[in-house]
Amino acid sequence: MIRSSRGRGRHKLFIGMAPGVGKTYRMLQEGRELRRAGTDVVIGVLETHGRVDTAAQAEGLERVPLRRFHHQGVWLEELDVAALLARRPQLVLVDELAHTNAPGSERVKRWQDVEHLLAAGVDVYSTVNIQHLESLNDLVAQLTGVIVRERLPDRVLERADEVVLVDVTPETLQERLREGKVYASEKVGQALAHFFQRRNLVALRELALREVADRVDDETSPDSSLRERVLVCLSMYPGSRRLLRRAARLAGFMDAPLLVVIVLNPHRFLTREESLVLEDCTRLSNDFGAEFLRLDSDDVLGAIAHVAAERRITQIVMGQSPRSRGRALLGRSLAEKLQQRLVGRHVDLHLIADDPPTPGPAGS
Hints:
The chain is 41% helix and 20% strand. By secondary structure, it is an alpha/beta fold.
């Protein structure tokens, strides 16, 4: 298990439907077993949230102290990547992969810290909940009413060497919550009335099971990624972020490459708000492993049709706002006009309503 300085470390990811299913416990349990077998294992960061059983599993495992630094009058602590690289263990245990690092940290997100360790040849075990996946953000908000602020690019899950689903039934998780094994007693009532409602847990569990099942299918099926190619057409409206996530999910289900296209009028300047949307969509495209293509043209549909033919696109995803749906009543819709431009090509069009999901309380 000892690696050369040039070899990439292996990443094992423990994923579950919600806090309290036992991801951290399972990670620590496997870490202890490996330590007994002679592997040099250390804890990089551990969040027990006061769970006694979880804390007990950490006993006997070396902890590399967190990096402490002063920011605006407050002492903060984060994973100490430099100390871990100096210590050079074979395996590091890292909890809560989607965590956002404190201001002043070298990297913005904890998953980026893990990438740094893996690139240096250190193996990492980590944990995450399904609702933190970037492409599921809108769907989770729609299903649960919770908008998750801390998100993880799907590519982190896709690149993991091994993904372990830690699963319990919704009823079992609710019982753990009532017994005080998930949160402190004063938080139980509120948790059961909101995020930990049975219908939410059922939906999140289904997402987790499906995500891991899709990964298994990808690993056991012959390569078919070239049979389908997905293109998503974005605009300068905030709903483009949601449209991009939906397209990424479609491309993921089809095991297909994703091309993100935005056509801009070369005769007008972007507003500040539009520039922020463009920047955000470029970042999201990178997170999804998609190719981002910006085109300057007066003929939006013509540019899209040209790219679709050139790239042999088989699936096109477009947004449909209430305004565009109203226009469709007065004449041909944009989708119909695009189909006319694609005559002779077998391309499926997916029209996604860009009405935003109803916002709810912020989640972590």
